[in-house]
Amino acid sequence: MLLNEKEIPIPIISGHKELLGYISNDVNNSLTSDEIPVRFVITKTDNDNYHCELGVLSDIDESYVSQMDSIFDFHKRSFENVEKFNVVLLIPTGIGAELGGHSGDGGPVARLFSAICDNLITHPNVVNAADINELPENALYVEGSIITRLLMGTVGLQKVRSNRVLLLIDKHHDKLFHEAAINSASAARAAFGLDCPLVIKMDDKILMRSLYSKSGRAVGRIEFIEKILTVLEKYKSQYDAVALSSLIEVPGHFHEDYFNDTMAGMVNPWGGVEAMLTHTISSLMDIPSAHSPMMNSKEVLNLDVGVVDPRKSAEAVSTTYLHCVLKGLHKSPQIMKYPFEKNNSELLTISDISCLVIPYGCIGLPTLAALEQGIPVIAVKENKNRMENKIEELPFTSGKLFIVNNYLEAAGLLGAIRAGIAPETLRRPLSYTTVHDMGFFSS
Description:
It is built from 14 helices and 18 strands. By secondary structure, the protein is of the alpha/beta class.
């Protein structure tokens, strides 16, 4: 089983109308019968094309094909439940986001937003900081593909008190590293009460390689994913969520380059391929999942990187990068397929989503789904990244797209939306009320 990245140009459609359905059809026509998309993004929009990049799964066993829904499946919500104010915070992995593109440095934003909403739905990339994870109490730690399916209306989220977390690790040639991973699980059990029924060491490993796409996104190539799936099937009665720690192949100089100030613009090379793996695992198995990269050698562990960019410092002081994953999965919500068929007042579904916050320029399935669902979108300009799209050109309904400078401004806007206040009424000068004089109608 192979997971790889594929680039597809799709011709522009006039007015970008019904873009979700249009792109779905074009992508499906561009792939062969044995290729299944697991991740999708528009990296650039120009006068001629949407430049799309896809994580594509191939050589997949038929038994998995039959149980895996298309990432383009869509169910439109019929109403918005306004009883609670629930916000989705996305900072996509591997796009070099100025804020949230390094090592859990989106955490302060998550904490800020959690004070404004009833539930904050976010993903590992935002809060995972090696041995640190300051996930707010009212935040839901949800793998990125599951957030996409939530916004597409095909899954719901069921809160839990706790999960049984299976830890699946590579058996390292230097036992220091797989023993450190086991100690991380033990520490989580002792320090915050994690239920970790077992740790499985894999001699027969998958092969993960970090790469960069033409757009500059961190992506990758993964071979032999079926080895993980076989283990997960064998032990499926013993866990509710899976944490993964495995080796990722990168050029040797990447470790120093990443921490080097002169390479400040370097996109974290590990996150993209990690997201490709967890998207696949969560999509195929319908389980919460998250990944931490296993260190390659003692030479890498002992690199003298000095005092580094604060956004990367959590990684500079960790050996396993694993504790954040274990803490996040501890209470990650369970995934409920076809929520519109279920009568469960405790289930969080697309009808319960109040707003989506993204970095400016990011157009993927979550943004397109929000556009179709009528969910307000806040795009943050200060969070610069590698995506080259003008989100304001999409056909949003009036009052459903807000472009702000920074996350502090976004927080104020969330407060206004929650209170039902038209944002323009909070600024001065306040424009005169619009009046149209239609005159007298004659029969």
